Amino acid sequence: MFRRPRDARACARLAGLTACVLLASAAHARAPHGPSAAEIAEHGDGRNMPPCSACHGASGEGNSAAALPRLAGLPAAYQLAQLNALADGTRADPVMTPLARGMSTQVRAQLASYYAGLSLHVEPATDTARDDGLALRGRWSQEIPACVQCHGDGGSGVGSAFPPLAGQPATYIVKQLHAWKDGTRRGDPLSLMQTIAKRLSESDIVVVANYFGMPPLAASTASKDLPAPPPGPGERPIPDDDFGKVIRQGREIFENPAKYADRYMGNDLRCSSCHLDEGRHVGSAPMWAAYVSYPAYRAKNHKVNTFAERLQGCFLYSMNGTQPPLGDPVLVALESYAYWMARGVPVDPGVAGRGYLRLPKPPAPPDFTRGREVYARTCALCHGSDGAGQRAGNGSPAFPALWGSDSYNWGAGMVGVTVAAGFIKANMPFGLGGTLSDQEAWDVALFVDSHERPQDPRYTGSVADTRMQFHDNDDSMYGKPVNGHLLGSDSVRPGPR
Amino acid sequence: MFRRPRDARACARLAGLTACVLLASAAHARAPHGPSAAEIAEHGDGRNMPPCSACHGASGEGNSAAALPRLAGLPAAYQLAQLNALADGTRADPVMTPLARGMSTQVRAQLASYYAGLSLHVEPATDTARDDGLALRGRWSQEIPACVQCHGDGGSGVGSAFPPLAGQPATYIVKQLHAWKDGTRRGDPLSLMQTIAKRLSESDIVVVANYFGMPPLAASTASKDLPAPPPGPGERPIPDDDFGKVIRQGREIFENPAKYADRYMGNDLRCSSCHLDEGRHVGSAPMWAAYVSYPAYRAKNHKVNTFAERLQGCFLYSMNGTQPPLGDPVLVALESYAYWMARGVPVDPGVAGRGYLRLPKPPAPPDFTRGREVYARTCALCHGSDGAGQRAGNGSPAFPALWGSDSYNWGAGMVGVTVAAGFIKANMPFGLGGTLSDQEAWDVALFVDSHERPQDPRYTGSVADTRMQFHDNDDSMYGKPVNGHLLGSDSVRPGPR
C-alpha cells in the first residue's frame, strides 16, 4: 500500500539513536549483581521495587480500571524518557515518581528496552464512527491538529517522540490529557501536548480516548468548552448521494494520495501536507479559496489555467509525479471535493484567506546558519534531522520530507523562500503556528530551501538555463550556490514523462 | 467564415415569397399605359407624383438632413409592406401617406422591386466603440434585446421583416424609433418594435442611431430614463490583461461559435441561442449560475461532470458537433468567461436563477395542432415556417433553426418538452418573454419537438432502444409517433466521431 516503508529508519533518525542501539544489546542483560529486566518486570527487584506486571499487566498491556498504561511495544527511547521524567519530576506521579527515583539509570534503560521488545498485538484505530472529527481531522478553528497527524495513522505512533495511542487504556489517555492540561505532566517536545491539551474540552478528551483507547468510556456529560462555531468553508456534511461519493473520494485522495492516486505520485506527501486541515485552513492555501480563484492566468506557464490544470501542477511539482490527464477520476474527485468545500463562498480571485500568509521581509536577510539552528530546535523533531520526514508505526506516511529524493521537486511553489516563510510562520511547528518570529520563519525557510531535492521537471539540461527560464521571477534557491554547492546540480533528474 | 450561407433562401422562407417572385419579373416592367418604375423614381409619373429621387437621393441612398430613408437594397417585400402601411395609415407620414395612396398596387410593387434591385455599397456597422452595449448586447435588465439579434450582424438585415439598419441615415433611425415609441408607426410583426422602442431612453436612441447610421449625431443630452442598475452577474468590465484576453475569447466563442469554434460545431447555433444576454439572463440558464453548480452528478451520463465536461455536452448535443478535448483552448476560454460572469456569486448548486424557468403543467395536455397555430402566429416570423431559422444579410447566423438538419440533435436538453416550454414561456417571442400563456408555451414546445432533427449521437442502431436507454427519464418526443411518423427514425445519423 505504501511504498518505501522506512520503519527501520524511524528509530535511527531521532535523538534516540544511541539509546536504541545500546538498549538493543542491553535488553536481556543483567545489571551487575542485580536481577534482569525480565525478572524485575515479573517479580520485582527483591528489595523495594514491586514487579512492574503487578500494575502494567503480565504482558505489559496496561490496566484500564486503574488508568495505567500499556508498556508493551512502546519505543524504548520514549519509555526511557518517561522514566527519567518521572524521576526528575517533570512527569509527576505519586506511585511512579518514587519508583523511578529508586532505579539506577541502567535499570531504567533495561526496563524500557525490555517492554519495547514485548510483542503485543494492537489493532490501529479504524472505527471512524467513534470519532467526532477531532482524532482524524482536528479542529483548526481552535488550532487543534488531528491526533493522527503526529501520532500516526490509526494512532500507531511515529518515531520515539510520538507514542502509539492505539492499544492504550482509554482511562489512561484521559488521565494523561488531564495531566498535560493541568501541568502535572510536562517536558514534552516544544510543549506540543501541553499546548494542545489546553485547547481540548472534557468531551473532546473522552472522544479522543474512546477513538484510540479501549474499552470505551461513557460519553462525557460535560458541555464543550466552546460553543460550536458556525460551519466554515468545507465543514458542511458531505451529501449521501452519487455526488457525495465522488466528494469523499476526493477527500481520501487529498489526505492520502500515495494510497489513492499512487500512479501519479512520485513521493509520499499528502495534499494536506501543504493545505492543512484537509484543505480548509486559512494561512495554508485552502482549497475552497483556490476553487473560486480559477481559471486564472499564471505567469508560471504563461497561460490561463483552469482549476483542473492547476491541480495537475501539484502532481507534477509538489508530488514530484506525473500529471493526471484532464478528466481523470483523480482530478474530477479532487475538483469535486474543492467545489464542495467552496460552497457558499463567492467566486472571487481576491477572496479573503486565499493562498499562504504573505510574511513581510525580515529585519535581517534570511541566513542559512541561523536557519539551521531553528530547524534543529523546532523542525527536526517531526521532519527528521535529515529532512526526510517520518512514517507511522503502521508504515503510512506521517511527517513529510522537506528535502531529498522523497520531497517536492525544484518546480514546486514551496521552493519559493517567500512562500515557505509564510507557510512556516502561519503553521509551524505543527499545532504551534505563529510561535516563530518572522526572522526565524525566513531563516528556516531559506535553510530548508538550501538542500537538494528532485530536479525541476522543466529542466533543460543546464541548471543556469533552467533557472533563467523558470526561476527568474521566484526567490527559490535553485541554481544558487550554498556552501560551495550549486543547488540543482545534484538533483535526481526525473525519467522521461 | 460562415458555412452554408442561405441568403438565397431568406426571401423564399417568409411570407414575402409570392411578392418576391412576382416582383422579380415586374421590376423593369411598365405598367399598362404608364411610366416604368425607373422613370417614376427618376422623373415622377408625369402627373401628381414627384420623382422619388428628389427626396431619397439619386441612388436611393436617403437624405440625412431631412431624416429620409435609404431605399436602395432594402428587401422588396419590406418596401412594399411599408408603402401599403403608409397608404392605409398604420405608418403615418404627412408626405408619404398621400403619395402612397395615389399609387396603384402595381406601382407600389414596381417601385419596391426597383429600389430593392439598386445596388448601394453599405458597410455593416463594426465600430464597437460607438455602441454602449445596447446595439450589440441589449439591456436585459429592461428586457431589451440587442438590435443585431433581429436586424442581423452589423445591422445587415434578416429576411424581409427585419430591414438592414446599416446605411440608413442616423436621423432617420431616430425618427423611426420615436414613431414606434409614440405610436405614429404601427403594424410591425408581433408589435415587436413598438414594444421595444418604448423601453428605450432618448440617449439610447441616439446611441443606436449612431452605431448603425451615418453621419453621427451629437450625443443626446437627455438623461437616461432609468438610473443604471448596479452591475449584475457578468456585467463587470472584463479586465485588460492576459486573463481578460481569454475571457474575451470566451465571450466571442459564446456569441459566435460557428466562427470561433468551427471545428467542433455541427450547426450554426450560438451558445446565446439558448443562454440569452450573452449567458447572463435569468430564465435562460445563465452561465454564471451554471458555473457555480458544477461539478455535479448527472443522471444523463451517470457520473460527476466538471463544468468543462458539461460544456463538452453542449457541443455534442446542442451544437450537434464534437466534444472539444478537455483542456482545449475553446473550453478554457468558455470556462474563463463563465467564471468571470460568476464573480461574486456564491458557489451553490441551488443558486437562485439557475437553469430554465420551471413552468407548471398546463391546464390541457400539450397539443400538436394548437402548437402549430401558436408557431405560425408567433415563431415563424423569425425561425421560419420550416423551422430552419434565418441568416443576416451578410450571411452570418441570425435566428436559430429549431428543427431539421441545422438544429440541435435529439440528445440536447432542449428536446425535453418541459425544458423547451419553460424557455419559451420566459423568453419567447424574442424580446416579448412572458406574453404567451402557459398553455401556448407548452403547446408550441410540443410542436417544435415533434419534428425530425439530427440523430442522437448515442444512437444504438434502434430508435426504441435509444429511447429506452437515453430518453426514458426525459419528456422528449424522441421515439414517439407523431402523425404516423416515428420521431428519430428519419434523423440524419452523425458520422463516426
- Total strand segments of chain A: 6
For the sheet with most strands of chain A, the description reads: 2 strands, antiparallel
Radius of gyration of chain A, taken over Cα atoms and rounded to an integer in Å: 24 Å
State which percent range the strand residues of chain A make up: under 5%
Q: What's the CATH topology label of the largest domain in chain A?
A: Cytochrome Bc1 Complex, Chain D, domain 2
Helix content of chain A: 40-55%
Shape of chain A from CA axes? globular
- Counting helices, strands and paired strands, the structural category of chain A is mainly alpha
Task: State the largest interface.
Answer: A-B, 29 and 29 residues
Tally of alpha and pi helices of chain A: 24
Instruction: Provide the succession of SSEs of chain A.
Output: HHHHHHHHHHHHHHHHHEEHHHHEEHHHEE
Q: Average pLDDT across residues of chain A?
A: 88
CATH architecture of the largest domain in chain A: Orthogonal Bundle
Low-confidence stretches of chain A are: 1-27, 222-226
CATH class of the largest domain in chain A: Mainly Alpha
Give the termini distance of chain A in whole angstroms: 23 Å
The quaternary organization reads as homodimer
Give the helices and strands, then pairings.
The structure is a homodimer.
Chain A (H helix, E strand, L loop, with lengths): L6 H7 L3 H10 L10 H7 L9 H4 L19 H13 L7 H6 L3 H13 L16 H4 L9 H5 L18 H13 L9 H6 L4 H11 L29 H14 L1 H4 L10 H4 L1 H4 L7 H5 L4 E3 L4 E3 L1 H12 L10 H13 L26 H11 L1 H4 L6 E2 L5 E3 L17 H11 L10 H12 L13 H8 L10 E2 L2 E2 L11
Antiparallel strand pairs in A: 1-2, 3-4, 5-6
Helix pairs in contact in A: 2-7, 3-7, 5-7, 10-12, 13-19, 18-19, 20-23, 22-23
